[in-house]
Specification:
CATH superfamily of one domain: Alanine racemase
Largest sheet: 10 strands, mixed
Order of helices and strands: EHEHEHEHEHEHEHEHEEEEEEEHEHEE
CATH class of one domain: Alpha Beta
Structural class: alpha/beta
CATH architecture of one domain: Alpha-Beta Barrel
Bound molecules: pyridoxal-5'-phosphate
Shape: elongated
Number of strands: 18
């Protein structure tokens, strides 16, 4: 077990290290749940972003009705971490076709209780496999249909209604609703897509089938979608780490002027300082995917302007105008921060996240579902 400098200054943490600013993170969580309480919409945060059981726990305590994961492996790791007490459950948003995954998902429900792991499906082949395995276990696998806005899923309207009708006639399945993830799109498109999702849910109700879950929404659309009549829950993920002018999430964009504070960064040390047009740090692609572009550089809490950042495997090269004032502020051995452009792929590269409060290390949280890409 590694010894970490708990209680000591950030500067004493060995680099590269993934940092979470606890106050900013909490501010983001509070903002999302204050909104949700006011809008009377449920929040099911997408755990593929943050993957750490401790973060899941914080969100569940803040009022999340459950969690979403993209992968069966993520669901397994988080379920087994013991965080989903009482009615809280997991919804796996990505479809799977492998019979061993079908067994795994149904088995999780057998072991932990019916309905603990809900899963998304898009066709009868997957439904039949789930039904067969669940029937063999004498349980019911709870399912939602993914209604497509461009990826997997069924087309909105009749194709989704037809599948729902078939699902309710199958033994071993319980139909819970639909999800229609509309992507982090601009307001006008989100509204059109939400309209299709809610319209389809109502068409299913009109043929006498109960639709409890109507899910959609991302960080970029949480307000548009969370206030759309008929959407019962939203599924944002990267809000915990911030989007905004200096945030992470999907690049540094502010879709629909959404703002959350930048709480995630990679602490890195300057290890090459011999040239007046650049410095080299010890964080490269192995600690931060290039994601949606180069990271931002933060020094003493401020974004530093530079000519560009290039990441290679283990090196981060920050370029400056020859002899610029910014370049002169950086010294060999100094620790600075990168703000990664895509939080989800960055998180997945780390074993732990270092939790910082008042510039000191308060705790080290394992990234529970790290590497669970299956
Ligand atoms: C199905 C689904 N729901 C929700 C999200 C969360 O999006 P965001 O991280 O922008 O909040 C994603 C992200 O890719 C997703 O694939």
């Amino acid at each position: 077990m590694a010894m970490y400098p708990i209680g000591k200054s950030v500067d004493e943490i060995e680099t590269p290290a993934l940092l979470l600013d606890l106050d900013k993170f909490q501010w983001n969580v509070n903002k999302m749940f204050e909104f949700a309480n006011k809008a009377k919409v449920n929040v099911r945060p997408h755990a593929k972003t943050f993957k750490a059981a401790a973060i899941c726990n914080k969100l569940l305590e803040a009022g999340a009705i459950g969690l979403m994961t993209q992968k069966v492996g993520e669901a397994e790791a988080l379920l087994n971490s013991g965080i989903l007490y009482h009615e809280k459950n997991l919804l796996i948003s990505q479809e799977f076709a492998d019979p061993s995954k079908i067994e795994k998902v149904v088995g999780m429900n057998v072991a932990m209780g019916e309905g603990k792991v809900v899963t998304a499906i898009e066709n009868m082949a997957q439904a039949l496999l789930l039904s067969k395995v669940a029937t063999r276990w004498r349980t019911k696998q709870h399912v939602v249909i993914e209604m497509s806005h461009g990826r997997c899923g069924t087309a909105p309207g009749k194709p989704t209604v037809d599948l729902a009708k078939k699902l309710v006639s199958l033994k071993g399945l319980k139909f819970r609703g639909i999800y229609g993830y509309e992507n982090p799109v601009v307001k006008e498109i989100a509204l059109q897509r939400n309209n299709r999702t809610v319209e389809t849910a109502n068409m299913i109700r009109n043929v006498g089938i109960e639709v409890e879950i109507v899910s959609a929404g991302s960080t970029g659309t949480y307000e548009v979608t969370g206030t759309y009549p008929g959407i019962t829950e939203i599924e944002p993920g990267s809000f915990v780490f911030g989007v905004g002018s200096e945030g992470t999430g999907y690049g540094f964009k502010t879709v629909n002027s959404v703002y959350f504070k930048s709480s995630l960064s990679v602490l890195t040390q300057i290890i090459g300082c011999n040239f007046s047009d650049r410095v080299i740090t010890d964080a490269g692609l192995k600690v931060m995917s290039s994601g949606f572009g180069a990271p931002l550089v933060r020094v003493h809490d401020e974004i530093m302007s530079c000519e560009g950042v290039a990441l290679s495997e283990e090196h981060g090269t920050i370029r400056f105008q020859e002899g610029s004032e910014e370049r002169k502020r950086l010294k060999w051995g100094q620790k600075i921060e990168f703000i990664p452009s895509h939080c989800c792929t960055c998180i997945n590269q780390h074993d732990n996240i270092f939790v910082i409060k008042d510039k000191r290390l308060a705790a080290v949280w394992p990234i529970t579902a790290r590497g669970k890409y299956y």
